[in-house]
What does this fold into?
Amino acid sequence: MRVAWLVLFLVALGLGVLAGPAGYIFILDASNSMNDPWAGGKTKFAWAQEALIQTIQALAEDTPFGLVVFGHRYAEPKEKSCADIELLFPFRTYSFAERAALISRIQELKARGWTPLAESLRFAAAAVPAGTRLILLTDGEETCGGDPKAVVADLCQKGYVLDVVGVALEAQAQEALRALAETCGGKFVLATEPTALPGILIKIAVPAPQIPECLAKYRVDPKIVALLLEHLPYPACDPMW
It folds into this structure.
């Protein structure tokens, strides 16, 4: 009875006293290799654009997010391309109406340059509060001489977590990027089929809450259950509840 009462009480309160989501900063690889066709169809970059658009559309209005892109303006010279990192969307909340303009900007992007992974990660972290989750969407490793391992290790100490979505990666790149994600306890997911990419990215940015068996029988919005579990002083299925 206490579990049912507590769930209903939170619904009645409207959850106004509970903390909102920490948010995400997406990092999109627009290096030249993303122009390669994937599975004989559209380019890897076209699929990445579509995945990012679908994910942005799926985020709740109270979820702050931003977007960093690298390699989208300059192919050469290398020095200029390796410095080509831009905060395309500042980190904040966006209404669903505002997102139409964001989607148009994503669709206009072109993949052109090199891959400054280390500097892009550092740049993205500097644009958001500590504790924000970084989500990297890429098809390869560093090509600008940076040290992503050292950068990520430093970001871990500051409270950031990095998730990596690999786009049709070679074996060597898979292992390197998996190690980067695991440095801070983040997720590494490899997309081997283009049609799977949107679902993978959405699952990372909009994870489904795990509902304990003792709460599963109550027909309550899973988001409410997730907030309940986050703020209970005891385990949800503790007998005292």
About this structure: Residues 7-20 have pLDDT under 50 and may be disordered. The radius of gyration is 20 Å.
